Fold this protein.
Amino acid sequence: MSYVEAKAKYAALGVDTDAAIAKLRNVPVALHCWQGDDVRGFDTDPSKPLTGGIQTTGNYPGRARTPEELMADLDVVLKLCPGTKKMNLHASYAIFEDGDWADRDKLEPKHFKKWVDFCKERGLGCDFNPTFFSHPKANGLTLSHPDPEIRKFWIDHGKACIRISTYLAEELGQPCIMNIWTGDGFKDIPADRMGPRVRYKEAIDEILSEPFDFNKVKPCVESKVFGIGVEAYTVGSAEFSLSYAAVNKDRCIPLMDNGHYHPTEVVSDKIPALLAFFPEIALHITRPIRWDSDHVVLLDDETKELCKEIVRCGGLEGSVKMALDYFDASINRISAWTVGFRNVQKALLMALITPDLTAMQNESNWTEIMVISEELKTMPFGEIWNEYCRQCGAPEDGQWFATVKAYEEEVLAKRV
Ligand code: RNT
Ligand code: ZN
């Protein structure tokens, strides 16, 4: 079947596929730099393990070890993915010139100049994240630490990151979403649950007292249910983070990561709940398996439902800031990046060409909603997707993996 035939089938359902394609092409989705090097970054000893409540597993060959390698890998991914991409960096990806190393509390915009050049050359915006993990001072607690000196170190890191985010936004002419996530928590039952949360709240207040323009820098607070090694208690729980964002709406937005909830909760349902109260929300799109395992995003039911809610709730108009967040070290990392990014694009496109059945719902016509929803599953979506890829100058399905294999042979396999 050709695109023209597929388009006619959707038109019969009242759907304009050309308009859907045109719309999706301009919606930014942030591509996380950390899939390429297993979240290691460049500012600490690469032989040290990742700490702070997140973990990568696997040792597939070809991990990027330097900024040059990571950028080269990103270039492959950017070419293989349709749509508007935006970079997403962690502070730990600072690039230091010889002898110029700075600790996290002393990071400056200049340490991200090479990333700005990278983004400018490719017409990308850039999001940013302070890195409150994988550091000698990140031992269990950071922003909620009882020791005021450690707390101050991390508050200063957060403030430095606001300045860097302003730099990124101004240089690249697009808002920078700056996400605050810490793995602060305890392995076992705490004696005091309140103290760390009050300290965490005050520490975020201090970070956000650093001057910034909320139109340029969008600080977020990301919640979590638990992490490996901190199973009993998470300082930045769902209630904590959502409440923080709610009472600081003028300078902060909530971020939901769909790996950070109890396994029967779904972020798709939480999107309209939050948008009833917040003009803007942010998402980390991932795939949890039993826990926050950060597997590559698939085109599975929840990814589709999540994207359906984003589209239905008007999120593509800017109220939902989308970012990927996963890291699989057990498979080819370029492929992991590409599969996940393409799947989010697929799910968004699928949502855009799904007829709006609101009127049927309002008439309690659940019978027809079911019939149409089920029959949509056998519509020729692949043709619409391939047309989208063609219009974006990206490879269609079936046409990109050979590039990854060749790159693995020529480049990744030589990284030993
Ligand atoms: C960890 C959080 C956090 C990180 C990244 C690297 O559970 O999801 O967003 O994955 O910041
Ligand atoms: Zn996340």
Remarks:
- The first strand starts at residue 28 and ends at 32.
- Residues 34, 39, 54, 90, 129, 181, 222, 224, 257, 284, 292, 325 surround L-rhamnitol (ligand 1) (CB under 6 Å).
- Residues 148-172 form the longest helix (25 residues).
- The chain has a mean pLDDT of 97.
